[in-house]
From TrEMBL:
<dbReference type="InterPro" id="IPR011992">
    <property type="entry name" value="EF-hand-dom_pair"/>
</dbReference>
<dbReference type="InterPro" id="IPR002048">
    <property type="entry name" value="EF_hand_dom"/>
</dbReference>
<dbReference type="Pfam" id="PF00036">
    <property type="entry name" value="EF-hand_1"/>
</dbReference>
<dbReference type="GO" id="GO:0005509">
    <property type="term" value="F:calcium ion binding"/>
</dbReference>
<protein>
    <recommendedName>
        <fullName>EF-hand domain-containing protein</fullName>
    </recommendedName>
</protein>
<feature type="domain" description="EF-hand">
    <location>
        <begin position="1"/>
        <end position="35"/>
    </location>
</feature>
Amino acid sequence: MEEVFEKIFKLYDNDNDGFVDFSNFAKILSKLEVELLANYPIQRNYATLDINNFPDYTLNELTSYIQNSEKFASHKKECGEFFEKLDEDKDGIVRIEDLKSNQIYAVIFNDISKQEINLEEFTNILIKRLFQTLIDKQYK
């Protein structure tokens, strides 16, 4: 999933130094439809970092912020609920056989060679595709 965030991060890393300023950090979050929380520690620390003349954000900070956001948590919950519906035999694994009658089959298994996936893999694939779609929509 980090490669999806890296793609948009590089678009805003104007001098290719591995950092974006707060303004671009906020723009990236907006493009990904992730809320910028006023009480999030990264934002509170911005003032302190600015005093030290190092107010910029790295890809790791962006990824951490997104993965700790309410939007990400909401998507994970929705993926879990969807996974439970697809896991017909309730064994914690979704197999191709479980998906044969479902349109999501092509989306989930398009770029992986596995014949089955667990909840974590399922969630990562769907959330990655969601953010990739948001990025593609912004830049096409």
